[in-house]
Amino acid sequence: MKNPLTTRTLALCGLLMVASAQADDEALLAKSPEATVTVTDLQAELATVPADRMNALRAEPSVAARVVADIHLRRRLAKRAEDAGLPDDVVLRTRLKLLRERVLAEAYLQEMSERDITDEAVSKLAQSEYRAQPERFQRDPEVQVRHILLKANECEADRGLSKAEDLRQRVLNGEAFDALAMEFSQDPGSAPKGGDLGYVPRGRTVKPFEDAAFALESPGDVSEVVESQFGFHIIQLEAKRSAGLIPYPEVQAGLEQEIEARLQAAARKKLLEEALASDTPEYENERISATIDRLAKP
Q1: What DSSP state is assigned to residue 204?
Q2: Distance CA 126, CA 262 (A)
Q3: Residue-level pLDDT at 24
């Protein structure tokens, strides 16, 4: 027999957890005398935002703050519209009704198209496609390199070449390449990362840089100073990868996302086809044309 106290305690804990989650959802993100914005508001606003856009929002908090600001402004203006009696207008009421129906229809299609797609099924399909289509997952030879970029200075006799040569010698004398890159490189994208460019395939960089990078043989090798249209480069090899089949773990996430999107699109298409087939309306084409003509008049 269950202990009544234990049962009541567990029930209370459950209620507290639900209440806590609800409190989090209603936590304020912005407030003013006229309006507030909650976590739930932001969640609803971003419900249809793609994953890559969400990652951009995470990387740029100021952009997310602007989204919250937009919600707050719209809410204030909507309240003023209500106070002015605008919702009493029949066309505006109908527009709101149509907007509600559009949101609900999209939510239904989204929910139903995802309902029968399981992580296990997606994983199996991804592995099967990887094995069946190896030609899709080939990579060209790649090099992982760091570089230090010094932009050419037309005011100097050698345009800054001697400074680049001095930095290269400091690397050869044992100074850390990444530290020198962070201090001296004028490439804003890679300098904060110690000059790291990650893995680079052929065709990604300008020809003089590519030739010098792929000519390096062993990790730690340092190129001569290379001149390109961007300035003077000093390149250090970190690693090499040969051409061949990309290991499955490196393509798994992207492939599973692709397959899940395909499955959702197919399910969505089927839902729409079934809905259209089950209830085909009769259209009053003359009345539709007359309405358009009336609306189009100045």
Answers
A1: S
A2: 12
A3: 64
Pick the CATH number of 141-242 from 3.40.50.450, 3.40.309.10, 3.10.50.40, 2.70.98.10: 3.10.50.40
Cβ-contact 215, 223 below 8 angstroms: yes
Single pTM value for the model: 0.63
Who's near 202: CB < 8 A, 6+ residues apart? 140, 141, 210, 214
Q: How far apart are CA 120 and CA 78, in angstroms?
A: 45
CA distance 264 to 133: 21
**Which residues, listed in sequence order, are joined to residue 37 by a DSSP beta bridge?**
30
| 157 pLDDT more than 80 | no
Q: Is 297 helix (H, G, I), strand (E, B) or coil?
A: coil
Record the tokens describing residue 249, joined without a space.
Answer: 């773990």
Work out the average pLDDT over 185-209. Answer: 95
Question: 185, 230 in Cβ contact below 8 A?
Answer: no
For residue 138, give both structure tokens: 């080939």
The whole-angstrom separation of Cα 256 and Cα 212 is 37
Range(s) for CATH 3.10.50.40 in the chain?
141-242
* Residue 241, token pair as written in the block: 């990868």
The 3-state secondary structure of 16-38 reads HHHHHHHHHHCCEEEECCCCEEE
